[in-house]
Amino acid sequence: MINLLRRLEDPASADVKIRQIIAAYPEAIANPLLLKEIKTSEGVAALMAKTVEAVPVVDAYCTRLQDELKERQNLQYLMADYIKALDQANERNKALLDSVKKGISRLDAEKKELAKHIDSLPDLSQIAGSTILPPLGELFTSS
User: Fold this and answer.
1) In angstroms, how far apart are the furthest CA atoms of the chain?
2) DSSP SS3 for 26
3) What is the four-CA torsion angle of 25, 52, 12, 15, rounded to 10 degrees?
4) Beta strand segments in the chain, E
5) Calpha distance 62→20 (Å, rounded)
6) Degrees (nearest 5) of the Cα angle 11, 14, 19?
7) Angle formed at CA 25 by CA 7 and CA 15, multiple of 5 degrees
8) CA 51, chain centre distance (Å)
9) 22, 57 Cβ separation under 8 angstroms
10) In this predicted model, what pLDDT tens digit does every residue of 53-88 receive, in sequence order?
11) Dihedral sign from CA coordinates of 56, 59, 65, 69
């Protein structure tokens, strides 16, 4: 798509130089009604020479215009596909974002519940006369 865009930066339709060259040819080349005004064989020969000169210029310009049109159509299809892909990616990203937000909300709720549970535990330093637990080795010996 980027290559197409770059090629369309200098399109045939914007080629002022060629358009001026084509516009400089006599109008009789393109308008058959003006052929009636030519009365001499020299006029016919001059018009024929100009016509022969104009044909390759106009053909090349028309070919470039056709190529530009095809490139613009291809770009239009590529842009439509690209926009569709972006929309799909946007929907996936929205779903992922919603999932992450739900996960964060769930974690926040669990954090609050844990903090509430920790706050409800008794403070062992405040318990007076607590018995000291026996050493680990004595826990598993039978007395």
Assistant:
1) 139
2) coil
3) -40
4) none
5) 14
6) 120
7) 15
8) 45
9) yes
10) 999 999 999 999 999 999 999 999 999 999 999 999
11) negative
